[in-house]
Amino acid sequence: MADAPVLTPFLQRSNLNRWPYEHIRRWTRDDTEQGRQGFAESNKLGEGSFGVVYSALDPNTEQRYAVKKVNEVLLQGTAAQQEFARRNFENEVRTLERFRHPNIVNICGYAIQPRTQRTCLVYELLEGGTLESRLRETGPSSLSWQLRVAIALGLAKALNYLQRGQDTKRAAWGGYFTRGAWWGYFARGAWWGFSFGVVLLELLTGKPPATPDGYYLHHDIQDGTADDPEYLEKSLDAREGVGEWPQELASALCGLARRCLLPHPTRRIQSFQELVRALSVLQRTHCFLAPPPEAVAAVEDAECLACYDSFPMQSGLRCENEHFVCAGCLMGHVRVESEAEQGIHALRARQGEIYCPLKCGARHFAAHDLAAHLDAVSFEMYLAAKIRYTEHEAREHLMGHMLECLESSVCRVEGVDHHRNHIEQRILTNHCPRCDMAWLDYTGCDAVTCPFCNGAFCPFCQEDCGEDAHNHVARECPLLPQDGDFFNGGMERLSHVVKERRLRDTAQYLARLEEAMFREVLEACRIQLEQADLDMPALDRAIRQARENPQQEGRAQNLPQAPQPELPNAEVLQRLEQQHREQLVEERRRLEQQHEEQRQRMEQQRVEERRRLEQQHREQLVEERRRLEQQHEEQHQRMEQQHQEQLMEEQQEAAQAQAVEEADIKELGMEAPCYN
Asked: Which residues bind ATP (predicted)?
């Protein structure tokens, strides 16, 4: 079969369930040799314009379905005919998928054979059979006139629902009729009323709408009525089992049929709401026992916004904007809204609650009201959807909190690294203020020239002195005493002054940080500070002083004069410089190695912290889910208990009323006179 390019993409875009084709084949087979392959002739229900319909039984669930095996009609004829058939087919599927009504069959899914792309549609199976077969039955199994009125009313309700619930310009409806099991196809506009009139003639007369020899029921009635106005009343089905039609009811039904079959389309009945009202009055008047007037006055009816049928107010729910939905339509609405296929975005949009089907802006229906009007399956689906929404929200909340904690931790670690690098590279390391390169080659002269950028600078206060630093060192450096040898103070004096500068700059830098960051940065830099031979107690005092006197921050201070050693001769000085240079190189290597190890430790701690937080939040999520499940289970048990208590109270009240009634009857029997 080559219908894949036509049907498969459309079906796959729909929201219908897809069953394996082999399952459908097994469900429709029987014990005959040919029937073992599936789609047995004994399971054939009928044949329509798009294929043959079979009865199917799912052995796992004992659920029965009607399976339509689509034929090749969509690929026959001209291109225009194929397109017309394809549109009708898609319109039928789309309409049945979209609308839910007690008198319209529900489409459940489809199946496609992978090799041949043969397509099957799966519908719910209604056990009543077809209207055509039931009307042909005779004897006690014939359709009574009461049931025929109910079939006409149900059909009118379904068509009224379609007419009011969708754009009739695109309407094409087909469906099994509830318990009457009628299958038909309707066009739009006035033809809906005409088609309904033909079905009504079938119900009244029991005759087929047409025969292969060219006989048409409505032509026969129209021709007979032209000669005898009461021809239709005389043609009513009077076989055994149908019963005697009440004269007033028969006249009213015949009048409705004539109005639906008028030759001029504009004069026919256009509104199925009018038909529903008329048939409802006829059914209440002739098919049911009339209730007491006070009981009728006490019951307030309302029209369901979904099926447009009238129900007592107690048999449904009304939203804040006075929109009423009956219990049956409410169950369908809740099941559709609570299906597992519903995306989490749809649940979040309504917070897992059930709102008015019209989306009128009213508050959601309360859980206890839903419990009172839903069956157990629908309410379980509602609770399951609520749990899915609550779990998702809890998961999103926990994940958001975890990400915030991770981001905060990362920012904190990055901040600590930034401050630690600044102290290590800008304060504790002697560097050129112009190119930021560390300098290690101290030759004994305090007017230092950078070997990388040839910039002159002061090694004591790190001042950029342009091309020559001698004048600054001799007269302007705030960290040097203005007496003694200005340029050849030696390594001991340089180390002493640089140590005091490092202590002061570190204290001023740390004093500007917040307390929590200050503690972490100080702990991260402790090894480098100790290696720089800084006195930690003196550093703490300097930090407290800088915090108490922030106006002194950054102000130059005269440091105490370092002890002046005896100057060695040139040979000794050269040897000392070489040793110091080697020591500086070794110190630099050691510091770089320590810095790399510290960085690796920090990275490892960061990874471990992230894993710990993820594990902690994962455990919190599991615990929250358990708590929510337990909470919803307790709520469900409470509601079930309340429902049972309510049922017991109603039973007790009924028993008491029965006891009172029996007592009254007994009392009346005792007082009645006795005649011999």
From this structure: 69
For residue 139, what pLDDT is reported? 75
Residue 117 amino acid letter = Q
Binned at pLDDT 50, 70 and 90, residue 567 comes out as: very low
Residues facing 65 on adjacent strands: 56, 124
**Alpha-carbon gap, residue 81 to 88, rounded angstroms:** 11
Instruction: State pLDDT tens for residues 160-200.
Output: 877 776 533 223 333 323 222 333 333 344 577 888 888 99
pLDDT tens track for 71-122: 765 556 677 776 776 677 777 777 777 666 777 788 888 888 877 777 888 8
* CB crowding 111-133: b at 16 or more within 10 Å, else e: bbbeeebbbbbbbebbebbbbee
More confident call, 127 vs 656: 656
Strand pairing category for 51-58 and 44-47 = antiparallel
Q: Is residue 69 part of an annotated ligand binding site?
A: yes
DSSP string, 267-279: GS---HHHHHHHH
Whether 7 contacts 88, CB under 8 Å: no
> Which tops the pLDDT comparison, 552 or 429?
429
| Inter-residue long-range contacts of 92-96, CB under 8 Å, 24+ positions, other chains counted | 92/50, 92/172, 92/173, 92/174, 93/10, 93/11, 93/14, 93/16, 93/121, 94/14, 95/162, 95/166, 95/171, 95/172, 95/173, 95/174, 96/123, 96/174, 96/175
Angle at 357 between CA 351 and CA 358, to 5 degrees: 110
DSSP β-bridge partners for residue 69: 52, 120
Angle at 581 between CA 575 and CA 583, to 5 degrees: 105
Predicted structure pTM score: 0.47
Gap between the Cα atoms of 203 and 210, Å rounded: 14
The candidate with the shortest Cα–Cα distance to 124, out of 177, 194, 69, 65, is 65
CA angle 620, 625, 629 (to 5 degrees): 150
Task: State phi, psi for 605 to the nearest 5 degrees.
Answer: -65, -40
How large is the C-alpha radius of gyration of the chain? 47
Q: Which CA distances in Å does 441 have to 430, 487, 491, 559, 579?
A: 11, 15, 11, 24, 11
